[in-house]
Amino acid sequence: MGRKLDRRWECLSQLSNPDEVTLAHLKKFYRLEDQACPLDACRSMCKGNTRCLNHITDAEEVTIPSEDVEEFSDNVNDIVLNRSGLRNYGSTCYLNAFLQIYFHFAELRQAIYQLPYNQSFPEGVVEQLQLIFSQMQLSREGLVDPGGLIEALHLSERDQQDAPEFHSLFMSLLETRFSSVGQTVIRDLFQGSCVYETRCQICGFVSRLPSQFLELDIKVATGRLEEYIQKYLAEEELTGDNQYACPQCATKRDGSRRVRITATPLMLCIQLLRFNYDQRLGRRVKQAAPVRLPDLLDMTPYISPEDPSSPTENNEKKRFLYRCSGVLLHLGRYSTSGHYIAVVRCSDADKDFWKVCNDERVFTVPVDEFDLSKVNTTATSATSVRSTPKKPASVSSKPAPMVIDSDTVENDNTANVDGDNVYHVSPSAYMVFYRLVEADDAPMNNGPAMEVDVPDHLRRVVDATNVVFTMENLNRRLEKIEQKQLTLGRIILRRYILEHLRTVTGKELLPRKRRKPNSSVTSNDDANDVVNSTVNVVDSIGDDPDAEDSTDADLDDICIVPTWWLAEWLNEPQFPPPQLHFPPHDKDVFVEAREFVGALPLFCTHNRISPNVHSQHIRAVSRSGLSLCFNLSLDLDNCEVIAPDSVSSPFTSIEAVAALSPCIGCLRWRVAVKGFNKECNALTKDISRWRRASKGGVWPLVPGAESAVSSSPSRVYFLGMKSFTNWRSFAQTYFCAAAKASSCPPTTDFNKDAVCPHNHLLADNIRCLPPSLWHRIVALFTLPNSTATATIPEYPSDCCDLSPCLQCADVKENLLARAQNEREALSGILTALTSGSSQRQLDGLITGVETELAEANEGNRSIYLVPTEFIQQWRRYLRLPAAIAPPVELPSGLEAAGVLCIHECLQMPWNELLEDNLVYPLSSYEWHAMSQFYSVTSDHRPLRLVALPNDEKQEGMDQDDETGTAALPKQQRFSLVGSPEVCDECYALVQQRRCNFVAARIFIRQVAGPAEALAFNSTSPASSTSLEQTTSSIQSPTREATSANAAVVRRSQRRRVSREDSILRVNSFTKLIDLRVQLINVVGAAPYDQHILLDGVELTDNTSSLYQLGIRPETRLLVWIDTPNSEAIAEASKKPPTTPSSSANNSFSPADRQVETGFKGTRLLDYWSPDEKNSSLSGVS
């Protein structure tokens, strides 16, 4: 009520009378005075112009022209898809990278195709490898699944592995398979030879050890690859403690050793050793040094004969020139994690290009535009790895070199062209593959790659898959074409609807644009007649008969709708608009509409469009246009809009049309609120001045009170203390109720507290006001826009008798006497209530008859349960008997809220009713004394407990002695008589509500081991049992008491925290594994090293919730952890450092590194060993 007018209401700021609000103000407030924006003329929807219909929905685009919608190719061979990528199963990027490299080695692929195919075991390693290569070569799907090979090799999808280790083991496995059929493919393609020489510096003796290699292990730093090969082959001096034991000298001598390469294979593999062990950090670290890899590598200077002393023909060395054909990149900061990407060189009849293979993403880049240093995890297209344009290099007879821009590496490596050679710079290159392109006098192979034919049995399998994929692809294309047709139709229909919903101001017409004219859509006279025949809503609201005709005419065709509703309709214009509902009783606005629930309050109390809705949330549309567009349909074949020939009935009811109109009543009400607040503020100041002058408005007036008013009052008006203090609240309540009242005026209780029930003034509870202030207050209770005034009782000073009411005095005296009698008779209840605790011992209520309980009658052994609310009301009455009325009757405990269920049974056992403080126990004497003052209700029988006789008590004690318990169960001491049973169904719901706890606390106590945990459970009386577990049913035992004489004590539910306990906040739906994660910060151990004990039972099901495991609020859990022994620590310290591994685009910190098991347990090791090198492996496939 006290809010100021915001900017939207500035048009009403100069008005003081609600009758001054005209239709011009209505039009200005709803932003209807502006012209409608032309379609597509705004960059966004105008928030300040409700007539703007631009950009209500997101624009749809058709990617193909409408005339080409039905034109598509029926030839399945015209479908060109992305190049084949390989699916990553989590941590299998190392496998995908090498499969891409192996596939692009045509000789290796051809040799694998020529291996015999085992029809009886197609799940073998070789069979799966053949299938993958054939799919990569012929498949149209664009994605190949290597899952069959992963299962054949028994590889883990989650373990991270080292790519060079996989390459070495896989080559050995393939060599074994080729050896079984009498071939040496791997040896011919990948194996080179070298000699390890050791020379004595004294006698000149040379020891030579021939060897073979699959890859050269080169230590690298920042620089060129040739430099590191030179260092790899350089001599190493053997001096000092490292002297050579010469067999000819028979003693240790200074010597030297080196490695000489005697032969290189067709595919030369070089591994760059980037991972070194850091003694300071205690782990392996990656050397991210940018290495310059030559595009053409001349190995002639590094190859020497096996026997250097043997003469060569013509003393000329053979030339061995290699071209870079593949690079394996390790992307990542740490040695134990990262991601592998393969980059391979391909060629066709026209040109060479590089192919970047990043699992599923495969793309190509021309050779002269490729930049290896830009290949990373974010490289997803050829644009991201293109080099920066440079000046063209000199033309040579060799193929176009790769111009590499290495701006991302150090400055000393920016020169990538050295003469005619080109260098690729990369800080992530891990393995490099070079292919022999010139040997001896053979010419350089610059032509396209060799053609490899796929075997017929594999081609048939892939062709069958391609046919299925092609048909699915064609169906998807047809669906896309249909979708594009529907999109084009929606655009046309949406445009048509917007043109007809668009409103104009006055007689000015703005040009309309149509994409496709339709002769069948014309203005319908019948529809216009029906719309014009509806009641003019604005006229029915406005009371001004002299409103301008132009303004009235402008609002005749206005219909205000929510923006979200219009957006929902325009999103799917081929369907009817969503249904709107307006009060009362949520009536439908439209005759036929699809179901939809709006999200914003739209209508005001006058059942009109509320002015409190922001202008951006409503749009003004043409009512006649809305009627015309309501039943439109769309012809998708011709993309034309079809309108109905005639409209036989209005699209909305007359009442619904009125609901979609602006509300002038709310504007007038807002002006009235403004005047009301202004008058209240002024009246507050005057009454405050009067209160200060009259000492609070007391009667008789104090001297000087007349100074607060303009003239000396000859009479004053009396009003009650509450009305005098809260007059503004009474006025505001009446004013708001008058706004919601439809026909009858509201009533008010203002000044009804000045008299007693016998219509006598309460002399000790009245204040006075001068006539000027009194009449201003009464004027606030006048209905807006009306002369009717609420009935306010007036008590002028010259017409009232201030003598006390004798009847009220007698009633007050009787109430005081009655309250005193009840205090004396029921002092025990008051003592228990005022003792600071609401607990009462049930045994104490029958203390007087406990010694002779067997001879006492049932009435003396009874305890009555009454509603706690009744006891609280009775206590308040005793405190203020003159102000608070006493209770009417003495109710039964069954009448307390929450005691009976819908089946007229108890919702819970009686002991839980006491613990939840729903009922209060009374002794037999207290019950009979209370019944003398209050009549007992006749709706329900009293809820009564009866103490068991001595023989039954002794039987219960004997049972306790047998079980070893220390206290008697309460249900064996007392029992309910004459009350309904506990409802099992409703009691289960009560238990469930208790167990659905949120942010409840539980206690965690850490112990040394299971022995201490079991000892703690045996000594603790209530170590981990919660309130729910102790009172789950009537037959279940309760908590142990402190003594046998106090078996039933209503204890406090507050749990005191021990210093040894830690507190955790949990929910009932929290899983046990989540609780273990929270315990990491408490016990400092991983979840798998934790043991959690509840009531002597260890919790192991990590997938169960805490509620399912029996954990309740205030539960104490015992936790101990497993600590490694000294032998395990010593064994772990002997393990070597981990090796680099791959992951699916994930990087982990050094603290997260795991102990790797390598390829143990896979078929890479199970079917290959040096001892079985020449054995047959027919079973491998």
Tally of helical runs = 33
* DSSP helix fraction: 25-40%
The shape, in one word, is elongated
| The CATH H-level homologous superfamily of the domain at 85-307 and 318-379 and 418-454 | Cysteine proteinases
Q: From the 3D coordinates, which CATH architecture of the domain at 85-307 and 318-379 and 418-454 would you assign? A: Alpha-Beta Complex
Low-confidence spans: pLDDT under 50, at least 5 residues? Answer: 1-5, 64-82, 391-415, 506-551, 849-854, 953-972, 1021-1055, 1132-1156, 1167-1181
Mean model confidence by pLDDT = 75
- In what range is the share of β-strand residues? 15-25%
CATH class of the domain at 85-307 and 318-379 and 418-454: Alpha Beta
Q: What structural class is derived from the secondary structure elements?
A: alpha+beta
Task: Calculate the terminal CA-CA distance, rounded to whole Å.
Answer: 86 Å
The CATH topology of the domain at 85-307 and 318-379 and 418-454: Cathepsin B, Chain A
Plain-language structure description:
There is one protein chain. The protein is of the alpha+beta class and 1181 residues long. Among the domains are: 85-307 and 318-379 and 418-454, Alpha-Beta Complex (Cathepsin B, Chain A); 666-804, no CATH class; 840-948 and 970-983, 2-Layer Sandwich (DUSP-like), CATH 3.30.2230; 996-1018 and 1056-1123, Roll (Ubiquitin-like (UB roll)). Helices cover 30% and strands 17% of the residues. It is built from 33 helices and 41 strands. Strands 5, 11, 15, 16, 17, 18, 19 and 22 form an eight-stranded mixed sheet that branches. A five-stranded mixed sheet has the order 38-37-41-39-40, with helices on one face. A hairpin with a 2-residue loop joins strand 20 and strand 21. Helix 4 (125-138) packs antiparallel against helix 5, helix 4 crosses helix 9 (456-501) and helix 10 crosses helix 14 (623-629). The longest helix is centred in the middle third of the chain and has 46 residues, at 456-501. The two termini are 86 Å apart.
